[in-house]
Write a structure and sequence with these properties.
Layout: H1 12-21, H2 30-44, E1 48-54, E2 58-65, E3 72-73, H3 79-82, E4 89-91, E5 115-122, E6 128-136, H4 145-163, H5 172-206, H6 211-236, E7 238-239, E8 244-245, E9 250-253, H7 254-257, H8 259-262, E10 265-267, E11 273-278, E12 286-289, H9 291-308, E13 313-319, E14 325-331, H10 367-376, E15 380-386, E16 389-396
Parallel strand pairs: 11-13
Antiparallel strand pairs: 1-2, 1-6, 2-3, 4-5, 5-6, 7-8, 9-12, 10-11, 13-14, 14-16, 15-16
Helix pairs in contact: 1-5, 2-4, 5-6, 9-10
Length: 412
């Protein structure tokens, strides 16, 4: 069951370090920030404006005008979406947006929020603290570009007040750690296809011309294609200086997401050739997501299953009881008894020592990256151990099946 529907930045650990290092989160500058919020409220013609600070599990408010707001869980926050990029977030009618129409602040029984316009507060470290935004209980037309540009200027004034003038960037050691984490996670996925490719070519050299050789050649080519696509995606939608990876969301079909996986015919760690089958009854539906990042996550799970899982590997998709979409990779292996499954969900923990990793369960170094890619989409990732089967599940929130107005699968 999914309990979280908000996205988490890829570089969340580095972002939080910058947030907690901001010197101006004190009472002394309250009057200044209240004045900025009052200006934002008038600019947007909204009854409410605030400066939010987004932490690990909650959001709180450095300044609020027009309403009383207490610290709230991030499931009740709009600003968790605003901090996913440096661009403003404008929602003319929250009740018509798939991301927010079931939101506790929007749905029946809540306060009835309708309009939201906010800009991210970008610290001098490049990390995003929270947002400056306006909120109304009636829908608005989208503000003009000039209005949002002024709101962005007010947001920069907030950051200047919080950091001091001149701004004080986060410590260089923290930036170095963000870069190191980014390179560690992405670097593994750059190396894995090359390792698989190298093994395939070694087998090709050792065997006569045969159908198996043709299959291996095809799989090797697919691995190279995957690596090339990954490099292009990393270059286009990442910033190693802050450890950030961004989403390029569009409408895509679940069947198309499986294409990179279902063509794999590769040798496992024991040299046995393995292929992947799509499960009977697998759901084929359009959803709103970043197809490259979801393919990357599925590919990481599939390669882990090939390398460390059982002989039988299947992929599939469906919905759970709450209407969330699930994409999964299963293999006929078992998790090692010594592996603490819960540790797989701690930041950057990939399980036990690599030397002790069991070769039967479909686990490997790609899980921390997969978890981060899924959390960027507002979803959850879990690995389930069943008798004679290991299942890795990507669960995305139901709103990703509710396509944005005016968008169809043909637009992807």
């Amino acid at each position: 069951m999914i309990s979280r529907t908000y996205p988490i930045p890829f570089n969340e650990e580095a972002r939080l370090r910058s947030v907690f290092a901001v010197p101006g989160l004190v009472a002394e500058n309250k009057a200044l920030l209240d004045a900025i919020c009052e200006a934002a409220r008038k600019l947007l013609n909204c009854p409410v404006a605030h400066v939010s600070v987004v932490e690990d599990d909650t959001q709180w408010y450095k300044s609020v005008v027009g309403i009383e707001l207490d610290r709230m869980p991030k499931n009740n926050s709009f600003c968790t979406h605003t901090i996913m990029s440096n661009e403003p977030l404008v929602v003319p009618d929250l009740s018509k947006d798939p991301r927010f129409k079931a939101h506790p602040m929007v749905a029946e029984g809540g306060p009835g929020a309708r309009f939201y316009a906010g800009v991210p507060l970008v610290l001098s470290s490049g990390q995003r603290l929270g947002s400056l935004c306006g909120l109304d209980f009636v829908a608005h037309d989208a503000p003009s570009a000039q209005t949002m540009a002024i709101l962005a200027d007010l947001g920069r004034a907030v950051v200047a007040a919080l950091e001091g003038v001149p701004p004080k960037p986060a410590k260089q050691t923290e930036d170095d750690e963000a870069k190191s984490t980014f390179i560690t996670l992405i670097g593994h996925e750059l190396r894995t296809p090359l390792t698989i490719l190298f093994g395939s070519l070694q087998m090709l050299e050792a065997m006569p011309q045969s159908p198996s050789r043709a299959r291996l050649t095809h799989a090797a080519r697919k691995s190279v294609e995957h690596l090339m696509q990954l490099i292009e995606s990393v270059i286009a939608f990442s910033d190693a200086s802050t450890g950030e990876l961004r989403l390029n969301e569009q409408v895509c079909e679940t069947d198309a997401l499986f294409e990179v996986v279902r063509d794999l015919v590769l040798p496992g760690a024991d040299g046995t050739l393995k292929s992947i089958a799509i499960a009977d009854g697998s759901l084929s539906v359009p959803l709103f997501a970043d197809p490259d990042q979801i393919k990357l996550a599925l590919d990481a799970l599939a390669l882990n299953a090939i390398n460390h899982g059982g002989r039988e590997i299947t992929i599939g998709s469906g919905t759970d009881a709450q209407g969330n979409i699930e994409l999964w990779v299963a293999d006929s292996g078992n998790l090692a008894e010594h592996l603490e499954l819960g540790r797989l969900y701690e930041p950057f923990v990939v399980g036990d020592s690599i030397d002790n990793r069991d070769t039967r369960g479909g686990l490997g170094l790609g899980l921390p990256l997969t978890r981060k890619l899924v959390e960027m989409h507002g979803g959850d990732f879990e690995v389930r151990s069943e008798p004679d089967r290991t299942i890795a599940v990507i669960r995305l929130p139901a709103w990703r099946l509710d396509l944005p107005e005016g968008r169809t699968d043909d637009d992807a």
